[in-house]
Design brief:
The complex is a heterodimer. Chain A is of the alpha+beta class. Chain A is built from six helices and 17 strands. Chain A has a domain of 46 residues: Beta Barrel (OB fold (Dihydrolipoamide Acetyltransferase, E2P)). Helices cover 21% and strands 29% of the residues of chain A. A five-stranded mixed beta barrel of chain A has the order 8-9-10-12-11. Chain A has a four-stranded mixed β-sheet with strand order 1-6-7-3, with no helix packed on it. In chain A, strands 14-17-16-15 form a four-stranded antiparallel β-sheet, covered by helices on one side. In chain A, helix 4 crosses helix 5, helix 4 packs across helix 6 and helix 5 crosses helix 6. Chain A is flat. Chain A starts with 13 loop residues before the first helix and ends with a helix. Chain B is α+β, with helices and mostly antiparallel strands. In chain B, 30% of the residues lie in helices and 28% in strands. Chain B is built from four helices and nine strands; from the N terminus they run E-E-E-E-H-E-H-E-E-H-E-E-H. In chain B, helix 1 crosses helix 2. Classes of the chains: A alpha+beta, B alpha+beta. Chain B: Keywords: Acetylation, Cytoplasm, Exosome, Nucleus, RNA-binding, rRNA processing.
């Protein structure tokens, strides 16, 4: 077996490379933002002795009289209408609990899913007993945020054929702040793979289904073997997404596609190497800048 | 005992420091991708690793749920290879249980737990090499990990130990100085507001000396704060420069 040995490379310090420009107003926990009492307290701040102090490390943002501190890395804060991907953790009475990288598990009510047999079906007691046959612990789903409760928990729905149980594919987890908000988060990439970019940082890669309408309401998964070529494309995309997130690039269809095209010169496993990551992300960044004009 | 001379006539300690001097501190944030927050810190030869998960849904028994604030769950452990003598420490070691409790108290005082009702925040710290001041190093590592995770805190929590040898208060004791058996004080401080998150003392110390030792520990904590703040600021600048100034949602 061939073993590749590579020497350690010193971490590049951005502070040394002179990349530091106007990074905005940075604060750390306990720092005083303002002593002026005319401001409103937003997220990431607290009041003490008539002073407004930061409670997280991050960038200060001002909207008129409101002051917030945005941390660089947090858990997912849901908003109504977000597309999210999550994993079922628990089946309860009339609801599923779903892990969505949020600070509390999200709920998917039995009344907010499409059951097999059409939208207008009545939900009976039998449905409640058969919940585990639709979704059980460990299943992945895609859904949309329907409401945010007062304690921050999310309520979701899957009342569209776009959403539902996910079958064969690969889940990639990145920081939620790296997902760019777009009109659509479902894409069929030209390389024969589809992608769901969940706003919560969960990304689902799967082979583009041949025919899209299904009557089962999305609870039946196709278990036919996926051809090797499709699996290779998915693995390459996965490594590309990890490369982009390692360099803190925003993720959306174009950036992922450009990165995929830049990576074609390398073997799939090589995309995980630091030097190759720098290479292909640089190329991607350049193409994105060129395109913007 | 005719042992070691812990403080020379010239005022130098065994490792060449002055009485109020700290050991060299090196810190790094965001060492793991999987955890919500992580940090690694070296204070002289004491090395600690901290990871933070959360806030997340309460795992395990539901009965722990608090309806007005988050549960802080800590776990302190020492690697088998961390001490001079190799030792396997199964869970439930008396010393680690006590340390776990202290860490929990410290961070419940500093984290704004009331913002996350019904959730849980996990803090796991491990000592990789023990050379005195284990509790203090763990607190400093955990503080950095919590900041990395973006969990709101009142202030940094900075901890430092202090001792009293030959009528002089010494800051940041090393293993040799701890083993000498003199009085030892561990202080966890919120440096901006001068509030004490935890104060612990071993063995006897005359009341008259307490204030001087406390002053030495407070000063050391503020020095630690300066170093940690520097590390956080550098990390912040590095990451925000990478992100550029695009409007993240």
């Amino acid at each position: 077996m061939a073993v590749e040995v590579r020497l350690p490379v010193a971490r590049k310090r951005v502070t040394e490379s002179g990349l530091l420009d106007s990074a905005g107003h940075l604060v750390c926990p306990g720092d005083t933002i303002t002593t002026d009492t005319g401001f409103m307290r937003g997220h990431g701040t607290y009041l003490e002795d008539e002073k407004l102090l930061a409670s997280v490390a991050g960038v200060v943002e001002r909207v008129n009289k409101l002051i917030c501190v945005r941390a660089l890395k947090t858990r997912y804060n849901g908003e109504v209408g977000d597309v999210i991907v999550g994993r079922v953790t628990e089946v309860q009475q009339k609801r599923w609990k779903v892990d969505t990288n949020s600070r509390l598990d999200s709920v998917l009510l039995l009344s907010s899913v499409n059951l097999p047999g059409g939208e207008l079906r009545r939900r009976s007691a039998e449905d409640e007993l058969a919940m585990r046959s639709y979704l059980e612990e460990g299943d992945l789903i895609s859904a949309e945020v329907q409401a945010v409760y007062s304690d921050g928990a999310l309520s979701m729905h899957t009342r569209s054929l776009k959403y539902g149980k996910l079958g064969q594919g690969v889940l990639v987890q990145v920081s939620p702040s790296l997902i760019k908000r777009r009109k659509t988060h479902f894409h069929n990439l030209p390389c024969g793979t589809s992608i769901i970019l969940g706003n919560n940082g969960f990304i689902w890669l799967y082979p583009t289904p041949e025919q899209t309408e299904e009557e089962a309401g999305g609870f039946v998964t196709n278990l036919e073997p996926i051809p090797l070529s499709d699996r290779e494309v998915i693995s390459r995309l996965r490594n590309c997404i990890l490369a982009l997130s390692a360099q803190k690039m925003l993720l959306y269809d174009t950036s992922i596609l450009y990165c995929y095209e830049a990576s074609l010169a390398h073997q799939i496993k090589d995309i995980l190497k630091v030097e190759v990551i720098e290479d292909i992300v640089m190329e991607t960044r350049q193409r994105l800048v060129d395109q913007e004009g | 005992m005719a042992g070691l001379e812990l403080l020379s006539d010239q005022g130098y300690r065994v490792d060449g420091r002055k009485a109020g001097e700290l050991r060299k501190i090196q810190a790094r944030m965001g060492v793991f991708a999987q955890a919500d927050g992580s940090a690694y810190i070296e204070q002289g030869n004491t090395k600690a690793l901290a990871v933070v998960y959360g806030p997340h849904e309460i795992r395990g028994s539901r009965s722990k749920t608090l309806h007005d604030r988050a549960v802080v769950n800590c776990q302190y452990s020492m690697a088998t290879f961390s001490t001079g003598e190799r030792k396997r420490r199964p869970h439930g070691d008396r010393k680690s249980t006590e340390m776990t409790l202290h860490l929990k108290q410290t961070f419940e005082a500093a984290i704004l737990t009331q913002l996350y009702p019904r959730s849980q925040i996990d803090i796991y710290v491990q000592i990789l090499q023990a050379d005195g001041g284990n509790y203090c190093t763990c607190v400093n590592a955990a503080t950095l990990a919590i900041i990395d995770a973006g969990i709101p805190m009142r202030d940094y929590v900075c901890a430092c130990s202090a001792g009293f040898i030959e009528d002089t208060p010494l800051a940041d004791l090393s293993y040799v100085e701890e083993a000498a058996g003199g009085p030892q004080l561990a202080l966890a401080l919120l440096p901006k507001s001068d509030q004490i998150a935890l104060l612990e003392m071993n063995s006897r110390l005359h009341e008259d000396h307490l204030e001087r030792v406390m002053d030495a520990a407070t000063k050391a904590c503020k020095d630690v704060y300066a170093v940690l703040d520097q590390a956080v600021k550098e990390h912040l600048q590095e990451v925000s420069a990478m992100l550029g100034d695009r409007g993240m949602a």
